[in-house]
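User: quick one
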Amino acid sequence: MSAVEGRKRRIGLLGAGVVGGGVIELLRARGSELGLELARVAVKDRTKVRPEIPSEVPVGTIDEVLADPSIDAVVELIGGLEPALSAVRTALEVEKDVVTANKLLVAEYGGELRRLANERGAALRFEASVAGCLPIIEIIEAGLIFDRVERLFGILNGTTNFILTRCQRDGSTYEDALAEARAAGFAEADPTLDVSGRDTAQKLAILVGLVTGRPCAPSSIAVSGIEHLVPADHLAAEEVGCRIKLIASFVRTGEGGRARVAPTLVPSSSALGLTTDEYNAVEVECAHIGWQLHLGKGAGRMPTASAVIHDLITLDAARERSRETESKGRRPALDLAASDAWTARWLIRVPEENPAWPVSRIGAAFAAHGVEIVEYRRSRRAGVGTIVLSAETTKGAIDRVARDIAKLQGAVKIPVVLAMEPDA
Amino acid sequence: MSAVEGRKRRIGLLGAGVVGGGVIELLRARGSELGLELARVAVKDRTKVRPEIPSEVPVGTIDEVLADPSIDAVVELIGGLEPALSAVRTALEVEKDVVTANKLLVAEYGGELRRLANERGAALRFEASVAGCLPIIEIIEAGLIFDRVERLFGILNGTTNFILTRCQRDGSTYEDALAEARAAGFAEADPTLDVSGRDTAQKLAILVGLVTGRPCAPSSIAVSGIEHLVPADHLAAEEVGCRIKLIASFVRTGEGGRARVAPTLVPSSSALGLTTDEYNAVEVECAHIGWQLHLGKGAGRMPTASAVIHDLITLDAARERSRETESKGRRPALDLAASDAWTARWLIRVPEENPAWPVSRIGAAFAAHGVEIVEYRRSRRAGVGTIVLSAETTKGAIDRVARDIAKLQGAVKIPVVLAMEPDA
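Assistant: Done. Structure below.
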């Protein structure tokens, strides 16, 4: 659907939950002056009383919204794959623009849906799906007009960053920090998606798809979560001037790139290190303009609703740009390096102090796999053990070193391996 | 001029210098897919050979561009007040959209030009006028859909930040650092506009106008520059864990606000403290979403040109929003606090060590004006002298304290007074 001239853009809203309620509130308050009009709302439970929906707006089913020919744009806030996926497909088929906050949908089906949108001359927007409060998709797309993203590092999940901040700052255990995150409303009843790193991987997949112009499946991204971190890991990080953050990273390499999500050491006095509590941050390094950093709260009802409204008022500009993105989208899927081949500098924490393990024994494990030691120190703090920093090497090599250390005589615990951010 | 349907938006370019050349380059490379077409270029010197301009594009005078009825949008890259102001006025009068990178023009005449644009149904955009590479105007406008900016702190001038970084990091004098900035291409032959803080004040005036919806004249902003800082000032800042940055700040207070530009102490390990070299940074604190930080290079040919292109492809969305901004713009001019009434915590550096001045004498100067001392220390570093940190008080009061200290028996130098950022 092309530019709507001389009348308001009519919006069909799918889902009237927390964010949907925020969108309704903004449309009531500002819709008229922004050229937007709420035409219809689809809800799951039609018996529920919803005083926020104006009485003149029909409330019904998804099909009723999709079948209404007067509707220009559909806002999908159902979440999850179905029925959201079918609804978005149908909306685009009938040439309605779509705005969604659904990261799973965009991460898994973004390539297909963008192609469909372009075939039908419709726009597909999803600013609210990544770092709700930061217009990171707009920023990357604007930058892509002339530039090329070489590296991207992000803290994309507020829940895990809240937990890690509590662990690092207060010495909380993972379990206590998780309980605190729940009490503060930052963690779901089932936090698995967040703490496993999979939520972050979905968001990273969306950003990688954007910066490379080629679909990136979340499953192609190596992921590790924060569930296994213990207080001693945070103390070890602190000893080397760092903090542990759940970092989503993409580094371009030739035609492909490396993308992964992992607990990573970043310098305490770096922008990412200073990103605490429920904040998100995205660091983007481009070929021409160098690096940029954007830091702010990642989620919340009104910020997310505001991102949706912003997508709605920039649909026409987006339609132009997406044609270009789509033509790149037909290129083959991205060649992401296998997780074993990922190189970094690493911290190995050997949690046991064992007089039978002089530096020479641990050093031999590194030497056996051709990995250089850059720093070696026995921590004076109880329970931390020995900290070894390696030179740059592959994940495969450092894992082999860790396995050899675990086989030393008397070892009962497996060493902890953590990546270090390039500048750490 | 409203949405351009079914054909390319025709662009008239005023000025083909550094940024103008970048705009031409981007239009040649990407214009077609973005729905933009270079229609005419106006240059000062028509005899100069300009191979970057496609041969089919007429090159002529400003009047020829303005008189061309086929042109939808005018890009003003002349700079300065005249003839830029008259050209922009005429363009808006004849209902052409205008995109400009001219900070002086927007700072001084933004209110009038916005009203004119709205009367004629045209859009006026100026993303490239502030922090070229960071889409800060877009970010603030998007946030204003539902939120309210309470405080804004920014490093908005790359030249001065480059100079201050050299002074702080390398111990350079102001003069040496300025020479280095010139050699690196970051300073003009006449750097007065930058180092006096006036360039920053123009940009701040634009941002304050945006966040308050009311015109803010640059002349209403209290400004002090960086020309008078000496190496000992940077050492004093370092002793209290801070760095000196040229900070533009706005703090909302009731119906008005406080806006100023001054060398200010920020914590070394804060986002603004970590903003080094020619980088810009803007910290925005909103009522609902809390604070955000955006950090990146402030200027450059392609980033600035890209901001212009971005303004061009979002003209329709901007037109809707500017109606709202304009209605607020008719409110009375902002009540900015007089510079004397500005409160902050302060650092006073008494550059002389004088045995005739025990803490009691300096303390008495503070007490006489009701200003509390929070920290007092004699620096062990040569030439730094005594550092005193005050509790929050007005600029007027701290200046009176400084004047009293300067009158102490044997004093030859005037104490240096520096504001501290709220979180320092």
